[in-house]
Structures are given as structure tokens and as C-alpha cells.
Amino acid sequence: MKIAVDAMGGDNAPKEIVLGVMKAAAQYKDVEFLLFGDEVKINEYLADKTRIQVIHTDEKIESDDEPVRAVKRKKKASMVLAAQAVKDGEADACISAGNTGALMATGLFVIGRIKGIDRPALAPTLPTVTGKGFVMLDLGANSEAKPEHLLQFGLMGSVYAEKVRKIERPRVALLNIGTEETKGNDLTKRAFELMKNQEAYNFVGNVEARDIMMDVADVIVTDGFTGNMVLKSIEGTAGAFFSLMKMSLLNGFKNKIAASFLKKDLTELKAKMDYSEYGGACLFGVQAPVIKAHGSSNARAIFSTIRQARDMVQKQVVETIVTEVASGHLKAEQDKANQGGTKDE
Amino acid sequence: MKIAVDAMGGDNAPKEIVLGVMKAAAQYKDVEFLLFGDEVKINEYLADKTRIQVIHTDEKIESDDEPVRAVKRKKKASMVLAAQAVKDGEADACISAGNTGALMATGLFVIGRIKGIDRPALAPTLPTVTGKGFVMLDLGANSEAKPEHLLQFGLMGSVYAEKVRKIERPRVALLNIGTEETKGNDLTKRAFELMKNQEAYNFVGNVEARDIMMDVADVIVTDGFTGNMVLKSIEGTAGAFFSLMKMSLLNGFKNKIAASFLKKDLTELKAKMDYSEYGGACLFGVQAPVIKAHGSSNARAIFSTIRQARDMVQKQVVETIVTEVASGHLKAEQDKANQGGTKDE
Fold it and tell me: How far apart are alpha carbons B337 and B328 in whole angstroms?
């Protein structure tokens, strides 16, 4: 197996990327790496080149580049070349900690969509109080979503949760403003109908934003706009909470003692709320595994993201999505009868 | 001034409602109260009837009633009669801690919309880390919103923030998935254009969900679906946080000591994150002040909600909205030129 890595993306590139790749190469003897980026800078950190091939390029996509334009113009950017290696069959998956929008555009334009999936979706794994986590998609802030897109997101999340997260019969839920079937806006009402009537995955109905961290589902489906709002609300609230906690804990002698007692627990609590602990965000719907590592990834996070990519290749996540989409299980019963589709799961 | 109160709405009705009204009647000598509900049950708690008139009715709207149907069928419900008193000019404002959807329907069907406001909006005041708070609307989970609705929401929130929250030149922001002008879905992009070009209030641009608790704006405008998602995400994250904190604090002897040191601060922290501390949610866009008190309101919360209603009447919030809408300040420059509107603020 070969994994293509953009060495130049993220806040700590190329150092932490290179260190993470070396760690993964030492651990996973079945994986070879193609490392794209500035050879001189990469070699500063690349102490061991075993199963690691460096492909030099001067160009890179910046975090503030306009995604689509950058991908179209910077054809030699490290991120674009990594995706091109996948497209050309030289690598099985690619990862980057760089510009999220650009990676989505690269996946879409360079690697290409899976037939039958209308819109790719970005899917991080988010925390629950139980520590189990759940896959949420789309968080790519795609502009306008249609009900069919949400139907397809459910399938992709379900395959991933089952194959990589090893959850049997993952519970797939629709994010909505109430749990009743009749709740929601036009998009969620119509998506509910489609999801209820398919046979490709285990749809468990609506969930509310208030409950998503309480382990109510393994996969939660929403449009990119709403998903972005919810994710940032969670981040913002957690941030506000920690800043208030900190103010409290430094306020007076007794509190400082309490703080010293609680330091370890608070650090654990912060880690529990930090979704980067659960690995990178997968770009589902393209023809190979593409994973976005967190922009602030250190070597350990890059290592986890590589393991995630390796799992996706080994467990044939993309192939399973392709097969499921082709099988017609996403269609409602009557549609399938008309089309003579099969229905065993 | 007269305020109509639904004595039968909320988890603690009628007891806490009656106690709250008595407290307000004792404090505000300029206010009289019309209290609608079951006379026998109300009189159990109504020790002092000074400036309080009880109007008996057997009917009430339940928390799980389907809002629109309930309002149309239960014409003698305490909530509906309270609104009817406002419509008939017998009261200046009404409040209820009951079914939110039903109160919105009551406001709309019984009291009626302000001319030029296409859609009413429900607006609670939400917490910031600074303790200042901000008005957010719409959180009524109205189905589909149009850009013009968001434009109007901005005006109503701004008038309220200025008159009742005493904030000079309130900063009105649009909730979006990025701060740049070009970000968002079709709705937010078009709303941004309208808000940028009006002269009725101080539009400061987009804010992200991540930052809303950091005192970035005094009024934050969004559609009801997104608003509901964000509010519930905040609630859910705060809830998850407190449950994890509690688990930590009861985990081992040292932590229990720390917990005892921090008890007061944690209670304060919880209060800071609890938006019911900031009063009830206003239903803007109807022809009189209508306020939804939190369903779990105690007497103190009811008292606060009454003070809020009194402020809205005294400061002529509704009248100001009516005047502003009629003035044409919401229109863009060129529209106004065509219509010959005035433009001084």
C-alpha cells in the first residue's frame, strides 16, 4: 500500500508532518510513503528514509488561498501532486493538514467523484461524553444541499463507522430541530422520507443538536451549512467554558489549590472535548481515501491520520461505498420494484 | 399600564406565576395585572390581590399541544385570553411560560403582525463570557426564512437592545459560516447585501457561531432553523461539560475537596451559561410586547419577565419598530431614492 502525503500543509509543516510519517513508516511495514513538498526543508527532519520517497515541488497552497482558484492554478502544489499520485494509481490514499477547501476541491477535481454520489462530504469524528464519538457529515460547508445528498451522506458515514470504527449496524440519524418525523425545514423533512425508505443502512430518525454529544447515534447527517454552525457552536461553547473555568480557578488561594488538584482531570476533560483526538476528517464521495488532518496537527496526530487512511484502504471503504451505491439499496421500495433492483442487505 | 399574564403556562404553574406577579405588583405601583387561569388554583397562592384582577377560565394549552391547532380550537385558553386582552386594548403586553409554538401562534393570530414585518421572530438574550449577553433572533424555528426577514430581524433586535438593554448604537451581526462578505449559503449572502445597504441600524457584518459568546455583537441575526441548531448546540455542549465536570469532581478524595472549594464558582459558572438568567424571549414583529418566560421559570424569573415587559411598554419598543419600518430606513439607498424616502437616522 502507498499513501501520498502533502508535507507542506498545516501550521507545523513540514516538521510535524515529516516526523509523523517517519513514525508511521517505522510502525507499518506494509505501507510506503510518497512525501510531496520542499525537498530541502523536508530533509531537515527526515532522519530515516526507509519506505519514504520524497517528491520535490516548490509550489504549495496557502491557508488563505481561495480554494478552487488555487487548485486550478497551482498545478504543482504539494497537495495537488499528492492527489494526482492517487489519480494516476501511484498511491492508494492521500492526506493533508492544509487548506480544507482546497483539499476538498483537489479531491473533487483531481481524484474525482464516485458515480452515484452527487456531492462529496467532509466528515470528522466528534466527541461524546462516553468517549465513543460519532461521525458527522457534511461539515464541509458546501453551499446548498438537496435531500438526496443527505441520503447519500448517511450511506458513506455508515460504511466508514462499520469498517473503520468497527461499529456493528451503525445508528445513522438526521440532525433536526425536533425528534418527531414532521419537524424541520423543507430539506430535513424530505431527507427524512428518503432515509426512512432506504435499505442501505440503519436509519434511526431525527436527533437534536442538544443531544449529539450524548451518544445518540454513530453517524449524524446534516447539510454543510448547518453542520458548520453546530461544530463551531460546540467549539465556541467549550472555549467559553474553559476560559470561564480558568478565570474561576485563578481567582483566590483556595481555588488555586483546587486547580492544582484538578489539573490532570481538566486536561483530560479538554482532550475529551477536542475532536482532533479522534483523527482527521474524511472526504467521502471521491474515488479514494482523502483525509484532512487538523491544521494544528503534531506528529502524533499525523501518525493517527495515516493509520486512519491505512484502515480505509485495508477495509475497502471506498469500494464498499461504490458497491452499495450501485446495488440500489438507497432507493425506496417502490422505486426498486420498478427498477428490478435487489434488496438483501 | 396593564400586563396580561397566562397563569397556567410552564412547569411550575400556577404557583410560581402567581408568586412572581404578586412580587411585581408590590414593586411596580404603575402596573396592574390581569391574571388568566383557574381561579381556584390561582387563589391558593394569591395572598394579596392589590392591582391584580383574576379572570377565570377552565381551558389551557398543554405543553405538548400542536401549537396552531390548539390556538385555533381552545379559544378560551388562558394564553389566548391574555393575548385577546391585549388585542382588545385592555392590556399593553402579555407574558406566558407555556407552549412556545402556541404563544407564537397566539401572538400572530390574535394580536397580529406589525405592518411591514413579514415574519415574527423569537428572541432570547444569550450569555457571553463578559456577562453582557446578546439578543439572538430568530430562535422560533420558523421554517423557511427569506433575506428580507433577516433584514427586518436586525431592526427589531436593534431597537430592543437600544431601548431595553440600554446599549448605544447596538452592533447587529449576521450569523454565518465565515466572516468574509462572500461566505455563506444563498440566504446569508443575500441577507448580507440587504443588511449592508440599509440605514436603520448599525450592521457590523458576519459573525461565526464559534465567537458569539465572546461579545462580538449585541444582536445576532439568523434564520429560525439555524438559530435553533446553534442554541441547542450551546445547551448540549454546556450540559456535556457539566456532566463531565461532575464525574471528574466526584472522582477521588482530592477532587472532592477541590469540588467543595469550587462549589460557589461552579454555581456561578452554571448561572453564567444559563440564558434564562437574562429574562424571557421576546416575540418581535407583533403589535404589542409578547414575552415567553422559560418553561421552568420560578417566581423570580416571572418577576424578571414582567419587568422586561414593563420596560418594553415604557420604552415604546413596538412603537419604535413600527415607526422605523414605516420610515423606509430598511431600504437600500437607490430604492429609497426611487421611493422618495427620508434617510436621516
Answer: 10
